[in-house]
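Example (one chain per record):
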Amino acid sequence: MSTTDLVPEALWALIAPLLPKPKRRRFRFPGRKRLDDRRVLAGILFILKSGLPWNDLPREFGCGCGSTCYHRLRAWQRRGVWTKIHQVLLAELRHADQIDWSRAVVDSISTRALKRGPYTGRNPTDRGKQGVKHHTLVDGQGTPISSTITGANQADITQRKALVAAIPAVGGKPGPPKRHFAALYGDRGYDSEPHRDWLRAQQIEPHLAKRRTPHGSGLGIVRWVVERTQAWKLAFRKLRVSTDRLPSVHRALDTLANAIICWRILQWA
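Predicted structure:
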């Protein structure tokens, strides 16, 4: 697998302008030459897809060592690079009329965490083992729009407002950016009358299944897209089991996974 396989030319053309320019090398004692950003990004993507520990990144790929990729990932996270990449790809999708603004769908999925951290918690569905919960909001076609990460012991409803608030202003067309969905769909984990009132105040029509009611509400014909997107995200093996103690690293990988899914949807269009 080469750098161009992991970071195609068309994708790199969108990402390259968003990366911070490297510092100029000193004339005297310049030190080791800085590794090319595209190669480092390819190394980060390989780790994200394969799930390998950072220090096990194969040197023969020419992407540098795992430590270089890890520190570059954190540096770009501090500069907001991963969020910018996701927003640029969302704008490309809107330009291609590939975002369904008629509805948004929310859901979550829990994964294992091998190390404790401020974003982990005891998973009630996995014998109380440490876990991470990925909360995702997608459009009507399953495009990931926003996401948050909490401990596995956090209820879904606690992140519903955060997911809506995190919807970015998406450009890509003449006129003001767009960030408003007409409706929001969710399962019984999001059942709350105050939250329904809050959504209506945001001019979003809530379609949330109610607790203690028979199954067969019909929301499944709409909600399946977010479950498919969660499955796409778990295909990135680094997200299946959290091995990083720092929340910023896991958030960076989660945002990068959202961006790559957007890129794939753009290629399918």
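Caption: The mean pLDDT is 89.
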